[in-house]
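Hi W., the acetyl coenzyme *A complex you wanted:
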Amino acid sequence: LKKRKKSKQMAEKTKKSGGGLAGIVAGDSAISTVGIGMGLNYRGYDIVDLAKNSTFEDVAYLILFGKLPTSKQLEEFLDQIVKARSLPSQLKDILERIPVDVHPMDMMRTVSSFLGLIEPETKENDQYKVAIRLLGIFGPAMAYWYHFAHSGVRITEQTGPKDTIACNLVKLLHLSQTADPIIVKAVDVSLILYAEHDFNASTFAARVTVSTLADFYSGITTAIGTLRGPLHGGANEAVMQYLQNIHSIEEANAFLNESFKSKKLIMGFGHRVYKNGDPRSDIIKEYSKLLSEKQPKYGKKLLYQVSEHIETRVVNEKKKFPNLDFYSASTYHQCGVPTELFTPIFVMSRITGWAAHIFEQRANNKLIRPTSNYTGPQKLSFVPLSQRL
Ligand code: ACO
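Structure:
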């Protein structure tokens, strides 16, 4: 009876919250919080401090293992990541068969799924090894597919033995042996900001999957599928799709007037948790601005100005604030990243958060299986097949 009363209360609470489990606490976690008054922090460290003082590898270690690494631990961690970049020949064969016109998120989902076939999670190849393997391999696999599909070029995944994930990615994408430090820094900061975010949709999906005792790769494959949608990770790409058609403040105004009039969702604005602004937005915005002023090849002053104008009007007129995806779009564009790869880069980063949540779920597992508030018909009399109209 007590249980039934509690679940009735939960159903009421869900209904009141407007659905989508908004505001429902679905479990404990010690990985990050977006808690009121605390800002976003990973393992107790403020995201602003981490973005300013840390590197993505430093933060990935923190998220995965619970504390900041010593220099020796960080060095060893980077060595493991560099080794994990190597692409098995079977995976290369698969990547070469994936057509150019698929969505790259489907390719990323396949990378995770296929690696689970050829390097399954076992007692020896445990969850920590698989997590580092995926952290290392996603960028090179994405770049391998991208260049092969677009121009038949087979890239070599290793760039330099000490190259960070951001540096390796930039070199691979630009097919260059050098990388502009401003671009590398901007990508590195974006990876820090995208790394972890509490019980967001894709992370929660990963936890649900592994709560059935499914393997690690299944959890990550589920998460990639969930991240793909434009209400979640797919928003950074969706932002660029409209920004690239806007070439002046007048065109920005026309786009906004039409969107406001037709009550269209403006991608890159609003958030389930942050109703008064996403703390990550101001950080990435700085990089969008910096690139627009300092990056000679890809920097675009007008793109930044248009973005800022859109932000001002949406905030003033709709009271919706930019989320991380809004300025990530102009940042990535000005780093010379193809638009279709924006969300796959989110995967390269969020693998850390997903992995930490899988470890945490497994450490104290309980099958995640909520109940629904049934609203369908009741007590119908069965109609034999011959009598159905
Ligand atoms: N543009 C226009 N209207 C919006 C927007 C937006 N970006 N976001 C919310 N609204 C509207 C809703 O349609 C709703 O209108 P209604 O009351 O008339 O139905 C109202 O504002 C209230 O919405 P919320 O309850 O605040 O939104 P919710 O928490 O359900 O959704 C979400 C959050 C999905 C992120 C939403 O703001 C949205 O769709 N934004 C655009 C997509 C996007 O940028 N996603 C990225 C999320 S961040 C990330 O994944 C890193």
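The chain has a mean pLDDT of 95.

W.
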